[in-house]
Structure formats: C-alpha cells, structure tokens
Write a structure and sequence with these properties.
Blueprint: E1 2-6, E2 13-18, E3 23-27, E4 31-34, E5 39-43, H1 51-60, E6 67-71, E7 77-81, E8 89-93, E9 99-101, E10 106-110, E11 113-119, H2 122-126, E12 132-138, E13 141-145, E14 150-162, E15 166-170, E16 173-178, H3 184-189, E17 195-207, H4 211-221
Antiparallel strand pairs: 1-2, 2-7, 3-6, 3-10, 4-7, 5-6, 8-13, 9-12, 9-15, 10-13, 11-12, 14-17, 15-17, 16-17
Length: 226
C-alpha cells in the first residue's frame, strides 16, 4: 500500500495505491473516487472492536456505525479519500504503543488496524469533549483527519493543549483535564476554558481549528427559524 497526501493542509486528499489483494477500511462517506475494478463492501467489524456491539461503540465515539471496505483484486488499485471537514490528513504507522484518537478523527486504516472504544473518564465530559475516544492498536497504516492543519508535538515531560485541538496521542502519555492558569475564574472569563495537561514521553497530534468553537461561531450567525 502506498499513500500520497495531496492539497495539504486545508483541503487534503489521500491518494492510495493498493497492491493485488490489499484492502483499506475507511469511515463511511469518505471515498471521493476510485478505480472501476475495486470491490466495495460494508462491515461492522474492524479488529477487536467488531460486530454490532463494536459498531454501536464506534457511534458513541463519534464514528459511523458501518465502515467501508475497499479491496483491490489486481495491482495498481487507486482510491481517493478525504475528510468530511475541511482540513488535513496524517499518515501514522502503528507501533505496539498504540494510539488514542479523538472522536471523528479516524479516516481509514489498513487491514491490521484494530479499532475499539476507550473510556477516557468523565474528565473528558467536563471539558466539553466526548467521554469516549477511539482506542487504536494493531499493526499497519492509519490515516487520521483534522479540522484545519495537523501538526506533531514530541512530548517529553509536560505539555498543555486546549481540549478541542487534540487529534490523537500515543498511549505512553497520561493526561488530566485542568485549567490553563492558576485561577478558574480567569480561565473562563479569558475564554480559554479547560485544557489537557499531558505528562510522559510520546507523540501528540493537534489540529489548528476547534470544531466545537467553529460550530458555535457559525451557528450564532445563522438566521433563526421562522
């Protein structure tokens, strides 16, 4: 499998070339175009997070109930995938450490990628984000999507990120939800809200835009229903 990312960072598209017998499992509704001979099917299963229960668990994490499977019977099968929001794509090679992915950031993965639902605690709910994040493990290639540009941070010690700007982080990192400064009143009056304080060593992936804040801004300018 070969992945080429085009039109980064604001309107990214992944061009994926599949060898004979290779397949990629993508979030439903993300296919833009593909070779005419590629076989398409729908599945509830992706690794240990499979079946009806796995599908509903993915829904709790902000993903679709079903996943789309694209399989090439011959060499040079080509498929284009793109995020549902305007933004970037990251290609990540899974390691034994595993990855925690924020809801709606999963785009696609190769056959060896396992998706399960990880409970990150009610601390996530209090931050205004999802209580359930995706727990990604296994081996292979993973494609993540972001709202706006995506960038990588090498954490070694402690690092603070606004909760709405997190795409994913390696499981070697621990985190807690807290205020950005010393004062709770100052945090909310300043518009910063809550942040994630990461500790440990590992990779953290962030996005330049906050989907929740963007939705509130756009929603406030829409005309009221008559």
């Amino acid at each position: 499998m070969k992945v080429e990312l085009l039109h980064q960072p604001d309107s990214a598209i992944a061009r994926i070339n599949l060898n004979a017998g290779e397949e990629i499992i993508a979030e439903a509704g993300t296919m833009i175009a593909m070779s005419g001979f590629i076989n398409v099917s729908t599945t509830l299963r992706q690794g240990k997070g499979g079946g009806i229960l796995g599908g509903f668990k993915r829904m709790l994490g902000g993903e679709s109930l079903f996943l789309s499977v694209f399989r090439s019977p011959t060499a040079n099968g080509e498929i284009y995938l793109a995020p549902k929001l305007i933004g970037d794509i990251l290609t990540y090679q899974l390691t034994p450490t595993g990855l925690v992915v924020q809801a709606s950031s999963y785009l696609a993965g190769s056959n060896g990628v396992d998706i399960d639902l990880g409970f990150q605690g009610f601390k996530s709910l209090f931050s205004g984000e999802s209580v359930f994040w995706l727990d990604i493990s296994g081996t292979g290639t993973l494609l993540l999507a972001s709202f706006g540009a995506i960038y990588e941070i090498e954490v070694n010690g402690e690092y603070i990120v606004d909760t709405g700007h997190i795409v994913a982080f390696e499981k070697s990192l621990k985190f807690e939800i807290t205020k950005p400064g010393s004062s709770w009143i100052g945090a909310f009056l300043g518009g910063e809200g809550l942040v994630c304080r990461f500790k440990g060593q590992g990779k953290l992936f962030c996005q330049t835009h906050n989907p929740g804040a963007f939705g509130q801004l756009v929603g406030s300018k829409l005309p009221a229903k008559s």
